[in-house]
Design goal:
Pfam families: ABC_tran
Keywords: Antibiotic resistance, ATP-binding, Nucleotide-binding, Transport
Bound molecules: adenosine-5'-triphosphate
CATH class of the largest domain: Alpha Beta
CATH architecture of the largest domain: 3-Layer(aba) Sandwich
Number of strands: 10
CATH superfamily of the largest domain: P-loop containing nucleotide triphosphate hydrolases
Protein name: ABC-2 type transport system ATP-binding protein
Distance between the termini: 68 Å
Shape: globular
GO molecular function, one term: ATP hydrolysis activity
CATH topology of the largest domain: Rossmann fold
Number of domains: 2
Order of helices and strands: EEEHEEHEHHHEHEHEEHH
Main location: membrane
Radius of gyration: 19 Å
Number of helices: 9
Length: 256
């Protein structure tokens, strides 16, 4: 029996994904240590969501292997999935359920006791300030509310690993502060968190490890201080990834 504390939370080995002729993930190697708060950063379209989708067994890679605490996400799918809570961009939700019904549905699918589902659902809805909206249908939720109910479904079964795509995007500052506290508490309690973000300050504030992905490859990965190597994460990101800042004179037509 494997222990969730000895193997890395995630190990990706030689992962490849193409869409049509487009190589989107190019032999990614990544190790997320158990117990870490891990930030994944990279430009738009770098392959973060695609990599995370393969890491949690939602998207089959063309080549390579994804393991969660040493369990292959395809060969040992049900045991691996018990350990993970997932919030990924673009995942469909049952739109015609209310927030509370969605949590009930998720908990029962996970095989949880109905009373425990109700107890945890009530607590999550309250702490994420969704209690007044719990009777509204998910299709009526705002973008930020969808993030929060998605996070609640990811947390409900008390996983060992949370994999979250931009969990703070579109969330109001008070809810963002609550989510940060929940995630920090989760890591202090022995859990592992991997999240993608475009906000370098948030990654620097929360994470102890970070990986930079560009054009489907990991260009830097490790403890935050090592990756930053004396610079701010933003400076390091720009130097690793490149990019073009408009020069004086370009887009001159925008100024009257
Ligand atoms: N199902 C799909 N079919 C075709 N192309 C796809 C599909 N999913 C993603 N892509 C393409 O793969 C590339 C990587 O997308 P991905 O969503 O993984 O990037 P990302 O790093 O998460 O970007 P962002 O930061 O903008 O969310 C993009 O060019 C995207 O258009």
């Amino acid at each position: 029996m494997r222990s969730p504390t000895t193997d890395p939370a995630i190990r990706l080995t030689g992962l490849v994904k193409t869409f049509g002729r487009r190589l989107v993930v190019d032999r990614i190697e990544l190790e997320v240590p158990s117990g870490s708060f891990f930030g994944l950063v990279g430009p738009n379209g770098a392959g973060k969501t695609t990599s995370l989708s393969m890491a949690v067994g939602l998207l089959r890679p063309d080549a390579g292997r994804a393991e969660i605490f040493g369990l292959d996400v395809w060969d040992d799918a049900s045991r691996a999935k018990e350990l993970i809570g997932v919030l990924l961009d673009g995942l469909a939700m049952p739109e015609r359920l209310t927030g509370r019904e969605l949590l009930r549905f998720t908990g029962l699918l996970r095989g949880m006791e109905p009373e425990e589902v109700e107890r945890r659902a009530g607590e999550l809805l309250e702490i994420l300030e969704l209690d007044t909206a719990e009777r509204a249908l998910v299709m009526e939720y705002s973008t930020g509310m969808r993030k929060k109910i998605g996070l609640a479904t990811a947390l409900l079964h008390a996983p060992k690993l949370l994999v979250l795509d931009e969990p703070l995007e579109a969330v109001d500052p008070i809810s963002a502060a609550t989510i940060k506290v929940i995630l920090q508490r989760f890591v202090r309690g022995g859990g592992s968190v991997v999240f993608s973000s475009h906000v370098m300050a948030v990654v620097e504030q929360l994470c102890d490890h970070v990986a930079v992905i560009a054009s489907g490859r990991v260009v830097a990965s490790g403890p935050l201080q090592d990756v930053r190597s004396g610079q701010s994460l933003e400076e390091r990101f720009v130097s690793l990834v490149g990019g073009q800042i408009p020069e004086v004179g370009e887009l001159a037509w925008l100024s009257s």
